[in-house]
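sry for the spam today, last one i promise. struct tokens for design, 500 residues
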């Protein structure tokens, strides 16, 4: 603990072992993997590198717990979730510190993520008591039909590194409210906050095995995930990550016909019409685009600006970008941290190179920090590209980096065509003051979530999820999210007439 690059008010919140059935455990192999601070490139701790041989014991713990937990009264489940919620909120400062060191995001964004994430514990505490079945009287005489909802069983959450707390609480909150048990496999880059959440779940009183955490390295992630997906006792898998990996997970789950929820890639268009409130569009775009250095599936990946305001809007965007302070996320003045991985930096560099070769121009590029202690951090200076077109890599794939590429368009029809010209369909954003156009865009854009004059549509009460290759199933929102963790049973019964 003394070698950690930060201090915590409550050191017990820092845990670096995997968690199963109320015990902190290591890997059967005894192996561990390193966890890095992306701001300095330094390893500051390690976690057990669990492998496929560790899966069965964890799943059996979750199944054992499920057999009791499923019977717990919904109000008791809600109370446990609320207790957990309050414990997380009380530890907000320490959790934000750990989050900043494992993801690289600035502290202010780490607090923002915790606030967003605890929206899910709060929301799903409420949902626990709203699970409802149905009763009907069918056409056949003397019949009644009942539909009852029950928890599906042991579930698994495979989560990415960009919003490790929010993604965990969005999935685990729904599962635990429904009466399921959950095995979380955090990303190898960001296992620590998930372990803190497990520690707090135990403190909140969740029974042993209700929430287990399997940490693993990048090397072991594919085989461990496959073993979880194919384990006969795992009934449901919720995955957030790339479309490529999502389709591999889908094929593993197909073997046992497991229920799945997929929140996959984005490549989201952000469209600004001539009649838009430009200041609003700018404020929403900068907050969406620069959040976590562009490392969000819902970020604006392609920015379409109508020709009448293109130059003016570009100038405003550049002026704003000059105010970004790039540096280590733990420094108060910093507004953008590093990328979480070196892979991210390499991809961003190759995308910018490709765009420039195909005719784009750099309108602005921030310099990476020159301080010696940040020299090995994964920094990529926020970059604004103009004169973008469809031939470029940035147009065809998510950047997951602070690259803002601006495209010029003339007509509404052209904007719709360009926006939909992708396999992805997670979110789309439109800025216009024309109500009729808003309706047309809402109906024509191919995306699971549409922001009208807003760049922020993620909230516990709003169904989150995409269409096309961005996945299926909804997380958060009323009824739909918890339904992902329930089975429906249809009961048909005969009611005899009373003999007079
Ligand atoms: C993501 O884009 O990866 C999730 C972000 C969110 O929940 O808003």
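last one done:
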């Amino acid at each position: 603990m003394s070698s950690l690059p930060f201090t915590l008010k409550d050191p017990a919140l820092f845990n670096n072992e995997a968690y199963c059935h109320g015990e902190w455990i290591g890997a059967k192999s005894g192996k561990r993997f390193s966890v890095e601070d992306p701001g300095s490139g330094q390893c500051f701790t390690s976690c057990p590198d669990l492998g496929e041989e560790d899966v069965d014991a964890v799943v059996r713990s979750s199944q054992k717990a499920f057999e009791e937990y499923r019977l717990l009264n919904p109000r008791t489940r809600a109370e446990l979730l609320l207790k957990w919620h309050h414990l997380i909120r009380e530890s907000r400062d320490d959790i934000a510190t750990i989050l900043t060191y494992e993801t690289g995001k600035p502290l202010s964004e780490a607090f923002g993520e915790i606030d967003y994430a605890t929206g899910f514990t709060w929301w799903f505490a409420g949902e626990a008591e709203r699970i409802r079945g149905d009763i009907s009287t069918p056409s056949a005489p003397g019949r009644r039909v009942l539909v009852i909802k029950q928890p599906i069983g042991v579930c698994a959450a495979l989560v990415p590194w960009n919003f490790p707390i929010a993604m965990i609480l969005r999935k685990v909150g729904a599962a635990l409210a429904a009466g399921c048990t959950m095995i979380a496999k955090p990303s190898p880059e960001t296992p620590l906050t998930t372990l803190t959440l497990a520690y707090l779940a135990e403190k909140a009183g969740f029974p042993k095995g209700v929430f287990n955490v399997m940490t693993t390295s990048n090397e072991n992630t594919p085989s461990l995930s496959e073993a979880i997906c194919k384990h006969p006792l795992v009934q449901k898998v919720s995955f957030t990550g790339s479309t490529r990996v999502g389709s591999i997970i889908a094929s593993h789950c197909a073997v046992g016909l497991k229920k799945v929820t997929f929140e996959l890639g984005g490549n989201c268009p952000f469209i600004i019409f001539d009649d838009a409130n430009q200041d609003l569009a700018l404020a929403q775009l900068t907050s969406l685009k620069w959040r976590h250095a562009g490392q969000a599936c819902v970020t604006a990946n392609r920015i379409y600006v109508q020709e009448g305001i293109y130059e003016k809007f570009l100038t405003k965007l550049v002026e704003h970008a000059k105010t970004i302070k790039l540096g280590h996320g733990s420094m108060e003045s910093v507004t953008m941290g590093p990328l979480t991985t070196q892979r991210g930096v390499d991809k961003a560099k190759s995308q910018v190179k490709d765009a420039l070769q195909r005719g784009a121009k750099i309108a602005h590029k921030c310099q990476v920090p020159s301080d010696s202690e940040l020299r090995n951090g994964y920094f990529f200076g926020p970059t604004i590209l103009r004169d973008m077109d469809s031939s470029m890599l940035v147009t065809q794939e998510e950047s997951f980096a602070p690259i803002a590429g601006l495209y010029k368009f003339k007509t509404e029809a052209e904007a719709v065509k360009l926006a939909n010209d992708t396999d992805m369909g997670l979110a789309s954003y439109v800025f216009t003051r024309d109500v009729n156009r808003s309706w047309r865009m809402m109906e024509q854009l191919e995306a699971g979530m549409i922001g009208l004059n807003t760049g922020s549509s993620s909230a516990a009460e709003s169904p989150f999820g995409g269409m096309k290759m961005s996945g299926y199933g909804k997380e958060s929102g009323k009824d739909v999210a918890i339904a992902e963790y329930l089975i429906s049973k249809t009961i048909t019964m005969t009611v005899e007439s009373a003999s007079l």
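The pocket of succinic acid is lined by residues 162-163, 166, 296-298, 458 (CB under 6 Å). ok im logging off now
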